[in-house]
Design the sequence.
């Protein structure tokens, strides 16, 4: 592997994320473990969104739907006394897979603005569903008393949860790297560049797009399982459209269609949010302006601006 | 459910529909001409409501605040378009979505700084208090006025777009922007005008909604999402489609919320109906949108190109 700036950045970011718990331990600041645990979860969700947004050119503005479905899978099962992590995982995968398949079959019939809006509409549909689930906390959300229990591995310990998320992210990045280089990835990227040409070459884009949509939904559901364990809390805010917006910001901030972009984006976004929150009560005002400026000035994102590699 | 209640709820639905139309009209034209996704349109509505409420509480004149809010919103719309949005017209949808998402955060926090976090109060003007007798049903006069104003604005939009020269340019622009530009029309200026007009309509919607909904930070987003549903169902760029879709969405949403629990109680047990009713009712229009788009991806009343 050539040592391009992009490779160096990748190694540095992953090394940094891997060392956070050590620093938190030495400095006696468990706060950092929680903050970067959140970074890891959002990174996983953003990587899954990048498959649609960056490689497929599908601007989904409702991806938080799957984050929420994953979280509610854990919350609802745990509420009924089932703390088996494998069941939580299975539920999240099945629910996200089915919802992804059905909603994907509908949304992929549209393009452009209609696609953005209908993905948003699906997320809103489930947002209101969770708001009205009074048995599971309704609008206010609900605490989870037992996290996912995977037998040998219990996610109720912050450190093991952190490293589980970290390893999952590494595996995901590796799988993404392989996927994008594969024939499937070529078709997805080709469809983004020129769908008509792909059709002329004899590919039917829809099955490929739908597969990417469902895959992305399931991976985002895994992030949902992790975030439910991290916060031990579920609420409709996971499915809110602002969460979808934040995920999109992370992907674009880091670099659309780059392997590490979503990770760099979620690190940068969540740190920025923490810094602004500490600085002023009206951090949203500044954050809003920063987002506008980022969009206007930088078109390729953090990783996208580093030389080295086309993706 | 009695016929009177049904009729009153249907009127409420139409009233929500015309409010949605006030927002959708401006948004769909900018969508249609510039192919521009503006999520910040809900923020314009929110700003309109706050400005109107402040003017009304200080002057006590509803008419004066109406004039004031229209002038203020035209100014805000003009500035917003010239300073920020015009740089985004050539970008792809993703950039537009993101930038206007940032603007929503900005405007929400701005209103929180200026007007504080708690809802800002605005009363129904004394002149419009009381009820009106519609075919034997007592209906609040103010809500009836909203319907009338909405229909008048809709008629105005129709005349503007179909009977004037500017309207002809707008229609031409939405079918082929480049060609209209090549014929010597300043399409950017036309769009700025349209954007300011859309902002003014959003301001009127904010003014009208102020006394019946609470004027508060974040009030724009739920309405924005409903407006997006309206535009997509109606067919992007079509004002006629926006009008009909706004009425459909308004009536379906309102009647769904009031009648579904009642219908469900006939088939399900009361507890199940009480649990499922509100959930299904709030999902109803999104389900409707998904169904319509699945069957007709271009919307119900698409603009005819070519």
Sequence:
């Amino acid at each position: 592997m050539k040592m391009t700036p992009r490779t160096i950045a990748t190694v540095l970011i992953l090394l940094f994320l891997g060392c956070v718990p050590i620093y938190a331990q030495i400095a006696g600041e468990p706060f950092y473990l929680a903050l970067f645990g959140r970074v890891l979860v959002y990174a996983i969700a953003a990587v899954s969104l990048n498959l649609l947004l960056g490689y497929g050119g599908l601007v989904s503005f409702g991806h938080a739907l799957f984050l929420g479905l994953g979280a509610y899978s854990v919350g609802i099962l745990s509420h009924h006394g089932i703390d088996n992590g494998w069941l939580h995982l299975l539920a999240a995968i099945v629910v996200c897979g089915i919802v992804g398949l059905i909603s994907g079959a509908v949304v992929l019939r549209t393009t452009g603005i209609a696609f953005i809006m209908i993905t948003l509409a699906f997320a809103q549909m489930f947002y209101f569903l969770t708001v009205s689930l009074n048995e599971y906390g309704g609008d206010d959300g609900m605490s989870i008393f037992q996290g996912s229990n995977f037998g040998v591995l219990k996610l109720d310990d912050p450190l093991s949860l952190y490293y589980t998320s970290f390893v999952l992210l590494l595996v995901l990045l590796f799988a993404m790297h392989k996927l994008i280089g594969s024939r499937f990835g070529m078709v997805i990227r080709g469809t983004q560049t020129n769908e008509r040409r792909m059709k002329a070459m004899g590919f039917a884009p829809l099955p490929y797009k739908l597969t990417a949509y469902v895959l992305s939904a399931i991976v985002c559901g895994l992030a949902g399982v992790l975030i439910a364990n991290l916060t031990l809390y579920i609420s409709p805010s996971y499915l809110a459209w602002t969460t979808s917006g934040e995920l999109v910001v992370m992907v674009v901030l880091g670099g659309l269609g780059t392997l590490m972009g979503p990770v760099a984006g979620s690190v940068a976004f969540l740190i920025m949010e923490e810094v602004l929150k500490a600085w002023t009560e009206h951090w949203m005002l500044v954050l809003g302006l920063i987002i506008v400026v980022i969009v206007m000035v930088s078109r390729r994102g953090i990783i996208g601006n580093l030389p080295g590699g086309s993706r | 459910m009695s016929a009177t209640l049904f009729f009153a709820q249907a009127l409420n639905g139409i009233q929500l529909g015309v409010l949605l139309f006030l927002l959708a009209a401006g948004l769909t034209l900018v969508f249609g001409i510039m192919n521009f996704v503006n999520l910040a349109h809900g923020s314009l509505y929110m700003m309109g409501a706050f400005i109107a409420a402040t003017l009304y509480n200080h002057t006590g004149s509803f008419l004066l605040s109406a004039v004031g809010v229209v002038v203020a919103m035209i100014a805000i719309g003009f500035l917003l378009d010239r300073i920020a949005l015009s740089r985004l017209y050539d970008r792809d949808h993703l950039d537009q979505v993101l930038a206007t998402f940032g603007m929503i955060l900005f405007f929400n926090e701005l209103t929180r700084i200026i007007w504080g976090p708690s809802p800002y109060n605005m009363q129904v003007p004394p002149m419009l208090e009381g009820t009106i007798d519609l075919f034997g049903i007592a209906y609040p006069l103010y809500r009836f006025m909203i319907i009338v104003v909405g229909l008048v604005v809709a008629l105005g939009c129709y005349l503007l777009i179909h009977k004037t020269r500017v309207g002809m340019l707008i229609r031409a622009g939405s079918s082929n922007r480049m060609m209209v530009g090549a014929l010597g029309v300043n399409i950017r200026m036309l769009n700025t005008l349209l954007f300011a007009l859309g902002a003014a309509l959003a301001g009127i919607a904010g003014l009208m909604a102020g006394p019946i909904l609470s004027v508060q930070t974040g009030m724009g987003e739920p309405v924005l999402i409903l407006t997006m549903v309206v535009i997509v169902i109606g067919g992007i760029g079509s004002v006629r489609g926006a009008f009909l879709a706004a009425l459909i969405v308004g009536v379906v949403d309102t009647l769904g919320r009031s009648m579904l629990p009642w219908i469900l109680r006939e088939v399900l047990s009361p507890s199940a109906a009480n649990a499922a009713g509100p959930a299904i009712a709030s999902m109803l229009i999104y389900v409707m949108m998904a169904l319509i788009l699945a069957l007709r991806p271009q919307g119900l009343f698409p603009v005819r190109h070519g």
Q: What stands out?
A: DSSP finds 13 helices and four strands in chain A. Residues 97 and 215 of chain A are 8 Å apart (CA to CA). The beta strands of chain A are 142-143, 149-150, 153-154, 233-234.
